[in-house]
């Protein structure tokens, strides 16, 4: 069931950087809610070829045809999924699974299992690097990267980083920037040389999770659990700015067409412009509880955020529980 809604931008325009006039934030607003099956989820990804939103779930991969709204609740069976990576023009998907500590390959149309590739401990975030042709699994517990050849569906190398790894982002030139959560730093990895070539201390950041490389400003933005985003310059190896965001971020999204970065933080979506002068805040949009991760469609500019309604925790140290039948995919557009 789909619900047509409209939700106004909630924050005033923030001051632009010195020498620039204030700019009106894009009027992103909620236009749809697509009902999803019950159950938890981790990261969302978008396949522009098949035009699907993939959501890695606890026991399955959910796929949403964004043009028709059709939901395939369990496209592929897994143990504990974290990230879905579309490969080979959308024909296949690779899913990191921390149950058996593997990267699982599936036929994207049928969900048929194709291969199981051993990874490190707790493979979590993952990405495809077009410059090297490698798929990369970031192993949160063993602190290393598993390099996988999508053509052979086999592991072809490992890069030790150390620490608790979170998400990573590539620059399109063979460098991968990886958040190291417990060390509050970004590890800069040269995938061709297969080694860490630099480390950027994230001053002012606690627990970096989401990350994106912004190609216009050539900056790396990391979202932090203490309610800030850091803007780091890889050329200098230093943080240039620390910007306030919401309290519970888990990813950073980037729209290369519109040159806008998004940080979903639970109940708001923070927006940032990427231009030659640097990274600057554009404002924020109210969303919904649980909307801490997402994916975007550059063709339409739509942003997709999984969310849910929650019941209060039953014990002082307990976690809120998702209300049955409340899991949805929020759809926002400019």
Automatic annotation (TrEMBL):
Q: What PANTHER family does the record tag this protein with?
A: DIHYDRO-HEME D1 DEHYDROGENASE, PROTEIN NIRF
InterPro entries assigned to the protein according to its UniProt record, in alphabetical order: Haem_d1_sf (IPR011048), Host-pathogen_enzymatic-act (IPR051200), WD40/YVTN_repeat-like_dom_sf (IPR015943)
Task: Please tell me whether the keyword Signal is annotated for this protein.
Answer: yes
What is the protein's name according to its record?
YncE family protein
Annotated membrane-spanning segments are none
UniProt keyword terms in alphabetical order? Signal
Instruction: Give the signal sequence positions.
Output: 1-23
